[in-house]
Amino acid sequence: MVFFHAPNRAERVATRRFVVLVPPGHGHCLVRRAKGEGCRTVPLSGHVGFDSLPDQLVNKSVNHGFCFNILCVGETGLGKSTLMDTLFNTKFEGDPASHSQPGVQLKSSTYDLQESNVNLKLTIVSTVGFGDQINKEDSYKPIVEFIDAQFEAYLQEELKIKRVLHNYHDTRIHACLYFIAPTGHSLKSLDLVTMKKLDSKVNIIPIIAKSDAISKSELTKFKIKITSELVSNGVQIYQFPTDDESVAEINGTMNAHLPFAVIGSTEELKIGNKMMKARQYPWGTVQVENEAHCDFVKLREMLIRVNMEDLREQTHTRHYELYRRCKLEEMGFKDTDPDSKPFSLQETYEAKRNEFLGELQKKEEAMRQMFVQRVKEKEAELKEAEKELHEKFDRLKKLHQDEKKKLEDKKKSLDDEVNAFKQRKTAAELLQSQAQQAGGSQTLKRDKERKNSGFL
């Protein structure tokens, strides 16, 4: 892996970044020069030394190291992990994914690589379970959410009062390798929908995976068909830059080869007198690094050796800036007021703060009114319930009084019956005693008469 394609590559990268080193107040000179308006040019009478700035930038960048993040999107079994191993000539950790995933999950792995004296922190993100579900309608959502989460993390770091961006591990996705199944017919609806959702968030490089599965003639027609479908559906894929004269020719040529038809293999076979990465089949051998067999060399050249820095730059200046602008506009920040006059950050913050406080007061007043209304409704409900309870109490009290009166009347009648019964009983007892007395006197009289008759 080589970061600079030619000796002037380092100078070109450094020259790109040279603009940031202009002292405050002198940026207008560079702008005027870029527009063709000349600044005053003065000759130097001797060597000063600022021509070493590109070397200083290169040394500083090399000492600090680089980071590069790749997102691999594609169905399970298209050889994403194998291609990554082949691209970076190593063996990354990871187990083969199954086809039984309930949903799409993104798995991120970070590795520290070193080539010569250049350190690279490489992050590979794979989409586990992509395309394995019956309902694939929302398969792109976890990918979009993951990319936005990386943008959000970087934005939050930028908005901190005390920033440490020089030591911050940038996890924003710099390149998305979209693996297309070698069907030879056309793109799937899932591929078109996913790429359409991702094209404004990441640099998409479409590649035809396992391209040895279709013939050369079918592969050429398949590439044309894919390009036509991408254009007709408005999908913006990454175009290798042609504004730099040193790489304009090769990038312009490679743009015509998109999408790349690739083959991956970590197996080395002896072909002739050399050991080469290849795939052995019963009918022959496919060499990975043979441009007559596949576009693997073109992909590696464009992705790593020529345009890696441009992919990083495009991610920051295009995709991240778009996310940042939309996010700040959602928060209410604007560059100009309604009169098209520039807004300062303080004025924007104060306006947003006042707007927020106003909305907060409105919500507080609305909540207070709602609370008062609910209290009144509750009081009315309680009064109604109290009234119903009083009415029920009165009904029960009246019913109780009626029952009590009935019982008293019944008791009085029973008492009268008892008294009458007692009176009758007393009269009967009196009559009985009188009858007994009368009966006794008659018996005595008869006894006397018997006695008298006996004596006679």
TrEMBL record:
One of its GO terms (cellular component) is septin collar. Gene3D superfamilies: P-loop containing nucleotide triphosphate hydrolases (3.40.50.300). It holds the Pfam family Septin. Residues 64-330 form the Septin-type G domain. Residues 393-415, 430-456 are annotated as: Disordered. Residues 430-442 have a biased composition (Low complexity). Residues 444-456 have a biased composition (Basic and acidic residues). It comes from the Eukaryota. GO terms for molecular function: GTP binding. InterPro entries: G_SEPTIN_dom, P-loop_NTPase, Septin. Keywords: GTP-binding, Nucleotide-binding. Belongs to the TRAFAC class TrmE-Era-EngA-EngB-Septin-like GTPase superfamily. Septin GTPase family. This is Septin. It comes from Anas platyrhynchos platyrhynchos. The gene is SEPTIN6.
